[in-house]
Design a protein that fits this description.
The structure is a homodimer. By secondary structure, chain A is mostly helical. Chain A has 6 helices and no strands. Chain A is elongated and about 45 Å long. The first copy, chain A, binds a DNA duplex through α3.
DNA sequence: TTAACTTGTCCTGTATTGGGCAAATATACA
DNA sequence: TGTATATTTGCCCAATACAGGACAAGTTAA
């Protein structure tokens, strides 16, 4: 999800992986892997990528986090149920805070 | 969430941590930590616990997975949004399968 | 006071990250 | 068509993080 987004953004900006790689000071293989979900995107690059692509860091971070959640539950048949339970927990913790 | 459940179940069965610990062949400190969410519950114990407490392994597994999800998103202000995005991804992947 | 539970610290082993490098593929284009 | 450029893929590796506990000491509850 973050990978696809990054690819979309890069293409919409007409940038080459080579250019993005230079910006992040990594090689193109790593960029390719990020965009294809072969490697997790390192959190530390989110701000640079957001700046480069002109989107908010929050947007990228949300997708980054969604990827992490997805990794946890993918292929599990109780995935949706588990997420629902976790969601309720989040909500109830938030209420406590107030 | 799994921790609380395990504690509930144990108490409803009138078992001591010592007894459960013996069953799993670990010491009571570890049991205590599982029940208090100080340590993740090892997946490999779920079946034994389910048997011991007379509940389905699936039920415990769902809570176990919910814990994992919760760990990923807790304290993040985009938690709910991220989960929602991940949920959509799960659903769309499932549709693909058919 | 004793048994039950919790907490802090420590340790070992395994898994995961964050990459690089080289080779293989795909794409564009003259 | 050939060839250069872009991208992907496979394999590798070091560093770090995390799991799965043990143990001892501290607390709590009967």
């Amino acid at each position: 999800m973050l990978g696809e987004k990054l690819k979309e953004l890069r293409e919409s900006k007409r940038l080459l992986q080579r250019q993005v790689a230079a910006e992040l000071k990594v090689n193109t293989a790593y960029i390719s892997k990020m965009e294809n979900n072969d490697k997790p995107v390192s959190k530390s690059y989110l701000s640079k990528l957001a700046l480069l692509y002109g989107v908010s860091e929050k947007e990228l971070y949300t997708l980054w986090l969604a990827d992490k959640v997805y990794d946890v539950v993918k292929d599990q048949d109780v995935a949706l149920k588990a997420m629902e339970v976790a969601e309720e927990e989040i909500k109830s913790k938030r209420k406590e805070k107030n």
